[in-house]
Design brief:
The protein is α+β, with helices and mostly antiparallel strands. Helix content is 51%, strand content 9%. It folds into four domains: 90 residues, Tetratricopeptide repeat domain (Serine Threonine Protein Phosphatase 5, Tetratricopeptide repeat); 147 residues, Serine Threonine Protein Phosphatase 5, Tetratricopeptide repeat; 189 residues, no CATH class; 59 residues, no CATH class. The chain is globular, with a radius of gyration of 30 Å. The chain binds S-adenosylmethionine.
C-alpha cells in the first residue's frame, strides 16, 4: 500500500479503516463513501476502498458515483469477482429505481421532433429563390399576394355559397373529389376572397392528384391569411413536386404558427429534410434514410441476403479510441498540437489519464466522465473553427460571419444529441478548458463554447460514436507526412519526441453520417464491421439475416446476449430509451411472472422456462403456445450478436 499522506498526515490505510468502521458499524454511508474516496485518491490500487465506496453509494442510491468507484476497480482488475458481482447488483438497482420512477412514463420526455431543429441551413435562401422561380415559371403560378380581403356579399348569395360548400364537404366525405372541386368552385365564385373555401378546394385538388392546381389555390391566399393547415398542405404539395427547400419553408411556417404544437407539420418537415440530406449519401446503396417516431432511421430499398454489404460509411471525423495512443493519434490528425498551448497540453494529459487529474494531495479527481476521449470534442470544434476561418479568408474578411459559422457547423447537424443530465454542470473544469482552448483558434478568431454548445456536442458524441479499426494507423499517416516534408524544416523531427516506439494498434472511434441513423434492436438485422471505402478506413454494415425491401435496418448498441433486464437498463442509462423491440416484447425478466399473460405465481415459485433460450417463463402450456406463435419462435431461434462497441 502507498504511504502517501494528506495534509493531516493520515495514510490511505488509516482512511480505509475509518471508512470500514463507518460502513459496517455506523452505517454512515455518506461518510464511508467520502473516506473511501480519499483513501483511493491517495492509493488508487486499494480494492477494498472501491468496494466500500461503491456499496456505500449504492445504499445512498447514488448510482453514478457508485459506478465511478467500480470503474477505478475495473482498472485494478477487470475480472475481480466481487466487482463483477457488485456491478450486476448495481445494474439491478438502476433498473429497480427506474421502474419505481414510473419506468416508461419517463420516456415520454423524449421527442425526436423536438430534438431535430428546423433551422434554416446556410445557402437555403438562394435555393428557395431558385425553387420559387421554378414555381412561377414552370407551373405558371403568380407571385403570392400579400394582402387581400373578402368582398361584401348579400345574405342570399352567402346562403347559396354556404349550401355549395356543404355539398362539397359531403362529396369529400364520399370520396368524390371532382364533384367536391366543382361545388367548392361554385361557392368561391359566389364568395370570392373566402380563403377557407380556397384552402378546402386546394385540399380536394391535392387528394384528387392535381398538385399544381392545389398549389395555385394556396398561392392565391395572401400570406397573413394562410392558416396552419394551409401552410402544411402547401408543404406536402411542394414535397410531392420535389421542391424540398420550399416544402421545408412552408412546414416551418406551419409549425411556428401552431407554436410548435402541430406535430404533423413538424414530422413532415423532418421527413423532407432527412430525404434532402441523406438521399445524396445513399444513392449508390440499396438503402435510404427516413424520419420515424424514433427520429432518423435506415430502411432497405431492396431485399438483401445474409452477409451482403448494405452500405459503407466514412467518418466525417475520427480519432484514436480512448486510451489507445490518444496522444499520438489525435495531435497528428487534428492539427491541435499538444505543445500549441498550455491548455491543449492539459487536454491531452486528461485524455492520457482517462479523465483524471492529480490534485494537490496527490490524489486523483475525475473531471471528464465521457466514455470517449475528450479530444473528440476538441476535434469537432477544431474542424468547425478551421472551416469557418477558411470561409472567412475566402470572403476577404477578418472575422467569420454568422453564415460562415453556420456552414462550418452544418456537417454535425446530422447527429442527434440527447442526454438526460447537464454535462456542463458535471464537468465545469472541462467546459472552462475548452473555452480557453478555443478562445484563440488562430488568425485572431475566437469560438464561443457556451454551456449549451458543450452539452450538445457532448451528447452528440455520446449517442453517435462508433469504434472501428483500420490497417492504416495515424502513425503511418504521420510518418508518411514526415517523409514528404521539407528536409530543411526541423519541426517534424522535434515532434518525433512525442512518438511512442511501436506503432499503436489502429483502433479509432468516429462519427459516421449514415451509420449514426441506425436505430437499435436487441434482435438486430445488421452488424457493423470494419470497412474500407476507397482506401479510407471506416465501417461496413452487413445483413445479419435475409432482409426484405422496406424493412428498417437495426443495429445493436449493446451486448445482446445479456438478459432483458440488463439490456434495458444499459440502453436506458446510456442511450435514454426503453427498448420495445420484438425480442424485448417476447422475453421476460422474472421466472415467477408469466412472460405471456403477466400472471404472478402465488407462492413465488418459478414458472417453467422456455427450454431453448431460458429467457421466458410461462404459467401454462397454453400461454407458451400463444407466445411461441405470436413472436417468441423468431427470437428464440436467433443467434444473438455479442458486444458491438
Ligand atoms: C445513433 S442515434 C440513432 C438515430 C436516431 N434515431 C437519430 O435520429 O439520429 C441513437 C439514438 O436514437 C434513438 N434510438 C435508437 N434506437 C432506438 C429504439 N429502439 N427505441 C427508441 N429510441 C431509439 C435514441 O434516442 C438514441 O440515443
Amino acid at each position: 500500500m502507498s504511504d502517501l499522506t494528506t495534509h493531516d498526515g493520515k495514510t490511505a490505510e488509516e482512511y480505509l479503516n475509518e471508512a470500514r468502521t463507518c460502513y459496517v458499524d455506523q452505517k454512515d454511508y455518506k461518510r464511508a463513501a467520502e473516506l473511501a474516496d480519499i483513501a483511493l485518491k491517495l492509493d488508487p490500487t486499494i480494492l477494498e476502498g472501491v468496494i466500500i465506496g461503491g456499496r456505500a453509494c449504492m445504499n445512498l442510491k447514488k448510482f453514478e458515483e457508485s459506478y465511478n468507484f467500480y470503474k477505478i476497480g475495473l482498472k485494478i482488475d477487470p475480472n475481480q469477482p466481487t466487482i463483477v458481482k457488485d456491478l450486476k447488483e448495481l445494474q439491478r438497482l438502476i433498473l429497480e429505481d427506474y421502474e419505481k420512477l414510473g419506468g416508461e412514463e419517463l420516456e415520454k420526455g423524449y421527442s425526436a421532433l423536438q430534438l431535430c431543429g428546423q433551422d434554416v441551413y446556410p445557402g437555403d435562401d438562394e435555393l428557395l429563390r431558385n425553387e420559387y422561380e421554378i414555381i412561377e415559371k414552370k407551373y405558371k403560378i403568380e407571385k403570392p399576394a400579400d394582402t387581400g380581403r373578402s368582398l361584401e356579399i348579400d345574405e342570399t348569395t352567402r346562403q347559396k355559397a354556404a349550401k355549395a360548400a356543404m355539398a362539397a364537404h359531403n362529396y369529400m366525405l364520399m370520396g368524390k373529389y371532382s364533384e367536391a372541386i366543382d361545388q367548392f368552385t361554385k361557392a368561391i365564385e359566389m364568395q370570392p376572397g373566402n380563403n377557407i373555401l380556397v384552402r378546402l378546394r386546394a385540399e380536394a385538388y391535392f387528394i384528387n392528384g392535381q398538385a399544381v392546381e392545389a398549389l395555385k389555390d394556396l398561392w392565391a391566399i395572401p400570406k397573413p391569411q394562410r392558416t396552419v393547415d394551409a401552410w402544411k398542405l402547401g408543404g406536402k404539395i411542394l414535397a410531392q413536386i420535389d421542391l424540398p427547400v420550399s416544402a421545408e419553408f412552408w412546414f416551418r411556417k406551419s409549425s411556428k404558427l401552431s407554436r410548435m404544437k402541430d406535430e404533423e407539420a413538424m414530422f413532415w418537415f423532418q421527413k423532407v429534410r432527412v430525404r434532402r440530406l441523406y438521399d445524396p449519401l445513399t444513392i449508390e446503396y440499396g438503402i435510404h434514410v427516413d424520419f420515424t417516431e424514433y427520429g432518423r432511421a435506415v430502411f432497405a430499398k431492396e431485399s438483401a441476403k445474409a452477409g451482403d454489404i448494405l452500405f459503407l460509411d466514412k467518418p466525417i471525423l475520427h480519432t484514436v479510441a480512448r486510451n489507445v495512443g490518444v496522444k499520438l493519434g489525435t495531435f497528428i490528425m487534428n492539427g491541435l498540437c499538444p505543445s500549441r498551448s498550455e491548455h491543449t497540453k492539459q487536454l491531452y494529459d486528461i485524455a492520457d489519464n482517462l479523465g483524471f487529474v492529480y490534485n494537490e494531495n496527490g490524489g486523483r479527481d475525475e473531471i471528464w466522465d465521457g466514455h470517449f476521449s475528450p479530444v473528440i470534442l476538441a476535434r469537432i470544434w477544431g474542424s468547425i473553427a478551421s472551416m469557418a476561418i477558411r470561409l472567412m479568408k475566402e470572403s476577404g474578411l477578418d472575422q467569420p460571419t454568422v453564415e460562415h459559422w453556420a456552414t462550418a457547423k452544418s456537417p454535425y447537424r446530422k447527429f442527434i444529441a440527447y442526454g438526460n443530465s447537464i454535462a456542463s454542470d458535471r464537468m465545469p473544469v472541462m467546459l472552462k478548458l475548452f473555452q480557453d482552448i478555443f478562445s484563440n483558434c488562430g488568425d485572431g478568431v475566437k469560438m464561443e463554447i457556451t454551456p449549451a454548445e458543450f452539452n450538445g456536442r457532448f451528447y452528440q458524441a455520446t449517442c453517435n460514436l462508433q469504434s472501428f479499426s483500420g490497417p492504416i494507423t495515424p502513425y503511418h499517416v504521420f510518418l508518411n507526412n514526415l517523409s514528404n516534408t521539407d528536409p530543411t524544416d526541423t519541426r517534424p523531427f522535434r515532434m518525433m519526441t512525442h512518438l511512442e516506439e511501436a506503432p499503436p494498434t489502429a483502433n479509432f472511434c468516429g462519427m459516421f453520417p449514415i451509420h449514426a441513423c441506425l436505430n437499435h434492436s436487441c434482435l438486430n438485422n445488421v452488424e457493423v464491421c470494419d470497412g474500407d471505402d476507397n482506401g479510407v478506413p471506416g465501417v461496413s454494415v452487413r445483413a445479419k439475416r435475409d432482409i426484405e425491401a422496406k424493412e428498417e435496418l437495426f443495429t445493436t448498441y449493446i451486448d445482446t446476449k445479456m438478459p432483458r433486464k440488463l439490456r434495458r437498463a444499459w440502453l436506458y442509462k446510456s442511450f435514454n430509451f426503453w427498448c420495445h423491440c420484438q425480442r424485448c416484447l417476447f422475453e421476460g425478466d422474472d421466472p415467477d411472472v408469466c412472460t405471456h399473460c403477466k400472471k404472478k405465481s402465488e407462492d413465488g415459485k418459478k414458472f417453467p422456462a422456455c427450454g431453448k433460450c431460458h429467457k421466458a417463463w410461462y404459467c401454462s402450456v397454453k400461454c407458451q403456445k400463444k407466445a411461441w406463435s405470436r413472436g417468441h419462435k423468431i427470437i428464440c431461434k436467433t443467434e444473438h450478436s455479442k458486444t458491438v462497441d
